TrEMBL record:
InterPro entries linked: DUF1272
Protein name listed in UniProt: DUF1272 domain-containing protein
Top-rank taxon: Bacteria
Source species: Aquipseudomonas campi
Length: 79
């Protein structure tokens, strides 16, 4: 089950579960589309993996499978 982390690790922008701008790597490091395209050039600064659009969990499933509330913000770790 994806964690659906709540924000971008680079700029701390909010990324709610239904955001089409949330991008993740295979380890679920989470970034916004702007940081992914302009700062990270499509690659995770943590693992080097490809960043792809995070799937959107259907709203009806969020109550039983809520998103994470743990924020990770590492502005110094972004390329």
């Amino acid at each position: 089950m994806l964690q659906l982390r709540p924000g971008c690790e680079c700029c701390d922008r909010d990324l709610p579960p239904d955001s089409p701008d949330a991008m993740i790597c295979s380890f679920e490091c989470t970034f916004c589309r702007d940081c992914t395209e302009q700062r990270l050039h499509g690659h995770c600064p943590n693992c080097g993996g490809e960043l792809l659009r995070r799937p959107i969990r259907p709203a009806a499933k969020l109550a039983a499978n809520p998103p994470s509330s743990t924020r990770i913000h590492k502005p110094g770790g972004c390329a």
